[in-house]
Amino acid sequence: MTRVPRLERTFRASNRAVVRALIGTRAAAILVPAGLGTAWSGEKYHPAGRHIVDSARKFGSHKGLPAGAADFTQARLARLQATTSGEYAQDVANDLRKTMQAHAGVFRTQALMDEGVVKVKELAQRAQSIHLGDKSNVFNTARIEALEVDNLMESALATMVSAAARRECRGAHTVSDYERPIDDPTTPNGRNDAEWLRHTLWYSEGNRLDYKPVNLKPQTVESIPPKVRTF
């Protein structure tokens, strides 16, 4: 194999830039261990990597796609392609951004979130009327932006509806209506484990919520019970 020093230097420099970018994100704490966990040490795989290899060998090939797997995507593209008038994608995106900043930010009240639910639902209706003016099939960034607004709308609905339904304080979800002292005997810091120690599940079909319990009995590690945040 012929080595190309200049390309190697470029690749290494690009990697350093990516690493520096990741270090500045909240995901760095997750990405770094995940990367190390799947690394090849030269002699053996680390646990996470070994699990991936073993699973691949066990199941062989991927499952076949179900019939009509591409129908939903094709329908999205066809809907945009057929538009003759309607909303500009970036207008809807800008209004969505302002709404989420105003109603799902750091400082939350129940009334503010309830109002946000109504506004995001209205924006979701507007998103269904987005008009694609550029119908070309080559480097069509307008089509990508319109699809991105659809994706953002689902994320916004999931966030806003789930937050408004969770009537407590937990982690970054701090609602002034439910704040309590740290030494409150039932809801310290406003965290209500009796009612809300559960995962929120949002379904785009019907815009509905469901919940599932938190698994406090893991199979391979010692359980860590919830504790009051004292820092």
Question: Would you mind describing this structure in some detail?
Answer:
- The chain contains eight helices and two strands, in the order ααααααααββ.
- The chain is mostly helical.
- The protein has two domains: 1-34; 73-213, Fumarate reductase/succinate dehydrogenase flavoprotein-like, C-terminal domain (Methane Monooxygenase Hydroxylase, Chain G, domain 1).
- It has a two-stranded antiparallel ribbon with strand order 1-2.
- Helix 5 (89-103) packs antiparallel against helix 6 (110-127), helix 5 runs parallel beside helix 7 and helix 6 (110-127) packs antiparallel against helix 7 (141-165).
- The longest helix has 25 residues, at 141-165.
- It is flat, with a radius of gyration of 23 Å.
Task: Looking at this protein, list some descriptive labels.
8 helices; two-stranded antiparallel sheet; single chain; flat; 231 residues; mainly alpha
Helix content: 40-55%
Q: Order of helices and strands, N to C?
A: HHHHHHHHEE
Low-confidence stretches: 1-40
Terminal-residue CA separation: 55 Å
Order of strands, main sheet, comes to 1-2
Principal-axes geometry comes out as flat
Q: Please state the average pLDDT score.
A: 84
What's the CATH topology name of the largest domain?
A: Methane Monooxygenase Hydroxylase, Chain G, domain 1
Query: Strand share of the residues?
Result: 5-15%
Query: Would you identify the CATH architecture of the largest domain?
Result: Up-down Bundle
Number of structural units classed as domains? 2
Radius of gyration from the CA trace? Answer: 23 Å
What is the count of β-strands? 2
- Which class do the helix and strand fractions yield? mainly alpha
DSSP summary: helix tally: 8
Question: What is the class of the largest domain in the CATH system?
Answer: Mainly Alpha
Task: Tell me the major beta sheet.
Answer: 2 strands, antiparallel
